[in-house]
Amino acid sequence: MPKKPYHYAQLEGVAQEMRTRPDMVFFYEYQTPTAALPTGEVLDLVKEFGTVRTSGRGWPIDAHWIAGAAIGAACAGSPSIARIPSMAPIYVIEYVQNQAGKIRSMTGGQASMPFVLWQDGAGRTRGNAGQHTDVGHEALYAQLPGLKVVCPSDAYDAKGLLIAALRDPDPVVYLDYGEVKAGEQPDVPDEAYEVPIGKAIVRQAGRDLTLVAWAPATVDVKKALPALATLGISVEFIDPRSLKPLDVETLAASARKPRRVLVVEHGHNTARFGSHVVS
Questions:
Q1: Is the pLDDT of residue 201 over 70?
Q2: How far apart are CA 106 and CA 111, in angstroms?
Q3: Strands 80-84 and 115-120, how do they pair?
């Protein structure tokens, strides 16, 4: 059977959670939540769950409103997802920082915020202007209190981390970079499963160098690993998958072996998340 496309795996996870939780809602801007298998089966969240639970078609292109509506629903007790199609605009930051991230602290731990911000990576292709080509916002979100931040690098992790985020009682920022969606993908189980938030994965064992990278830099690393091997350099490649909480234990255990660490990322030069990993 053909492997599941990346986006189908993501929406499959959302659909499985929405089927078991009738109060869960999905808000989107203009990306209608549909995906298809190579064999022709179509997954359409709007068709299956209706426009009350999957809202967005015909709405204004307004990230502020979409995130605010989703956070309001989560505050009222309905697990919610807000999918924003580009990382470049930061209109949602005020709601995420001042409301979603702080509600548990402001209520003395009594209130939860089951909210997922599904944030697409900006498109870095010809034709996109500077205001639509930003990357590296994982550093921005990771420094905000009360939030968890995950960043999948393949279809398996994309589904498992999204399900884990949807089941989390606190807000999770789910960063979705387009670069990792192409090329060969691992098998994705049909059933629902979680990839634990806060747990890194060792993609390749090695002894000479600890190399840390997350999407979209994992694409570059996978291209470079064969060349490094021909030079006789044994690389241990670690994908954090979860940036906050960060699996410091796995990273430190690897770094102690060669005592050489290289972090590869696509973020900005100043105050990038890689600086936190190195420190």
A1: yes
A2: 9
A3: parallel
Place of tokens 């199609």: 85
Percent of all residues in the chain with a pLDDT value above 70, rounded to a whole number: 94
| Tokens at 114, concatenated | 């089951």
Each residue's pLDDT tens digit, 102-160: 999 999 999 999 999 999 886 666 666 676 677 788 999 999 999 999 999 999 999 99
**pLDDT at residue 125, as a whole number:** 65
Give the whole-angstrom CA distance, residue 49 versus residue 70.
16
Task: Decide if 191 contacts 229 (C-beta within 8 A).
Answer: no
Instruction: Give me the amino acid identity at 145.
Output: P
Provide the sign of the torsion angle of the four alpha carbons 89, 104, 81, 121, taken in this order.
positive
C-alpha–C-alpha distance, residues 189 and 214, integer Å: 22
What number is the average pLDDT over the span 221-230? 96
Q: Is the pTM of this model over 0.90?
A: yes
Paired tokens of 120: 């697409």
Give phi and psi for 94, each to the nearest 5: -65, -45
Q: How many CA atoms lie within 13 Å of 157's alpha carbon, on the beta-carbon side?
A: 24
The token pair that represents 6 in the structure block = 């990346």
Instruction: Taking residues 5-17, report their average pLDDT.
Output: 97
The 3 state secondary structure assigned to the chain is CCCCCHHHHHHHHHHHHHHHCCCCEEEECCCCCEEECCCCCEEEHHHHHHHHHEECCCCCCCHHHHHHHHHHHHHCCCCEEEEECCCCCCCCHHHHHHHHCCHHHHCCCCCCCCEEEEEECCCCCCCCCHHHCCCCHHHHHHCCCCCEEECCCCHHHHHHHHHHHHHCCCCEEEEECHHHHCCCCCCCCCCCCCCCCCCCEEEECCCCEEEEECCCHHHHHHHHHHHHHHCCCCEEEEECCEEECCCHHHHHHHHCCCCCEEEECCCCCCCCHHHHHHC
